[in-house]
Amino acid sequence: MIGGTGLLGSAAAKILIDRGNEVKTLSLPPLPVGAEFPEQMEIILKDANKLSDDEILKLMEGSDVFVFATGVDERVEFSAPVYDKYYQYNIAPLERYLPLAKKAGIKGAVVCGSYFAWLNKAQPDMKLYEKHPYIRSRIDQEKVCEKYSDKDFSVAVLELPYIFGTQPGRKPVWVILIEQLKRFEKMPFTMYPAGGTAMLTVRQTGEALAGAAEHAYSASLNGEGRFRAYGISCYNMTWRKFLKIVYRAMDGTPNRRIVDVPKWTFKAFGYKMRGDYAKRNVDYGIDPVGLADIMGMNLFIPTDDCAELGCTPDDIEAAIFDSIKLSKEAFDGNAQLIGMKGE
User: Fold this and answer.
1) Neighbouring C-beta atoms of residue 34, cutoff 10 Å
2) How confident is the model at residue 336 (pLDDT cuts 50, 70, 90)?
3) Residue 152: per-residue pLDDT
4) Percent with pLDDT over 70 in the chain
5) Which regions of the chain does DSSP assign to beta strands (E)?
């Protein structure tokens, strides 16, 4: 596994080990302070990008499945052209590691992807591939995975939605939401799009990763390997319901009033954001004007694939609460945490 000490990788490692598997991970230092990892997991703190092919092959020898639980998402900011950075961190590594995994005799691979890829395929009329560099990169990532799959080497991509849960010592990605909601702190209501999103907890993501790894290995052993993209969701929730949980976690507000923002208003704000990005020399992965179409819809994914992978029920409201509470502490400067890095 690459990224086994991260939020998602460590959750998968624990489940895989609990099921009797052995796990080895290559991860970037430092380890987050206070985080707990399975004692049985072999942790190698090195930058995989700085290792030779021979060194990677040696690490892979004797393994059955390769898991790529790393990369960057659209919330990490880069200068133009942003697609090149997504290619560098999310696609190019797979162009290298997947052939090496096959050479090492590995039977399957699992890759952490994005639910924007699922949406692009479900709603081709939205032309998301053309409009948003990040979404294009995730589709292109899946094409690479499919290219290297065959009957003896299954490759699975988990099209992951919003994930809630915390890892001690690691900064949640939801600090950006706290920053956004601060705009409304002196108003009697919060303005937000009328849509909703698919979601699941960190533990459920670990179960999905473990299930996909086991499925990929079994299929390849039987000569039935293939490429498979799983649409991942255990819960589908409107933004309004989600934000009411967020406010309870953030400041104890029991029933914050949420007002739906018309799509044209969100688009107008998107034009302002484009200007802000330009002033800061940041290239957007998701076009903020086009984001209005996504945020205003119910981006709900059927839960069938998660059931197939063995995801079990969890307390999503408690996971949201924990994520927001730690994000607020980070925003207020009351917690020293490791953040997401473009490495």
Assistant:
1) 10
2) confident
3) 98
4) 99
5) 24-27, 42-45, 65-68, 108-114, 154-160, 162-164, 190-192, 196-201, 227-231, 235-238, 258-260, 298-299
Strand duo 196-201 + 235-238: pairing: antiparallel
Amino acid found at 332 = D
Task: Give the global pTM.
Answer: 0.96
Decide: helix, strand or coil at residue 108. strand
Asked if 156 and 215 touch (Cβ cutoff 8 Å), the reply is yes
CA distance 225 to 212: 12
3-state secondary structure of 25: strand
Contact 210, 154 (CB under 8 A): no
Structure tokens given for 12? 């998968």
HSE, side-chain direction, 13 A CA sphere, residue 23: 33
Question: 190 phi and psi, to 5 degrees?
Answer: -115, 135
Collapsed DSSP state (helix, strand, coil) of residue 290? coil
